[in-house]
Specification:
binds zinc ion; alpha/beta; disordered N terminus; 255 residues; Cyclin A, domain 1; 10 helices; Collagenase (Catalytic Domain); single chain
Length: 255
Amino acid sequence: MRFWRGRDGSGAAGRRPDAWEAIVDANVAMWNTLDDDEILNAVEAMDVLLSKRWEAAQGFVITDEHRVTIAAQASILAIALELSVFDDVPSIIVHPTTMRLTRPRAIGIGGNGGIGGIHAETSTVVGVAHDRRGPVLLAWDASLRGCRQPEHGHNVVLHEFAHKLDLLDRVIDGTPILDADLHNRWVRVCTAEFERLRSGAGSVLDRYGATNPGEFFAVATEAFFCRATRLRDEHPDLYGVLGEFYGQDPARRAS
Ligand SMILES: [Zn+2]
């Protein structure tokens, strides 16, 4: 059978390849902790993601393994969410490794009120989530490392897709779309935890989460799924609001 072949032959429309379970077994350690109902929901979400446009960058050649490994990880976020949470992900662009990003950055404001200048800032990253209906960019080596070794607590796929969930309300502020009751608790708990991380307190949360509230949510999502037991034990309130949002209890699965 021919997979990944869209109507235009470009591979735009995806299907789960026969080998998907073997790929997930080999690469996505977290998948093996899911119960049967969670797997059914994750597979549905995975199918949605596989139907997105997949593009390769920097000479990379995308195979079933790349698509399934990335889609399976991201699908775990959506086990208890509406499948429409991925509506604003039109495409996933896979780079072989770290990518260099050059972004224009305004520097200074002239004394007469004029713009000081535009400075090109280059950084190296393993993932990017563009806003609006922009793509998700991922480095394959980091994407694979994160799902094979979840105990390290870094998962770029969960991180970038968490940004896309945050962006569904068009604002990357660490607060995804929530019902009113959870929203109030979320803001209270996450503000306190963000300030605590910013103060330099040691934590299971990666220090990068202190960058801004958007990064805090993405980093907290990584910890919620990859270091669930520690997050629950050390930050029970944060674990609680994340658990309500995601509708999951990964610490139970881990035990
Ligand atoms: Zn980020």
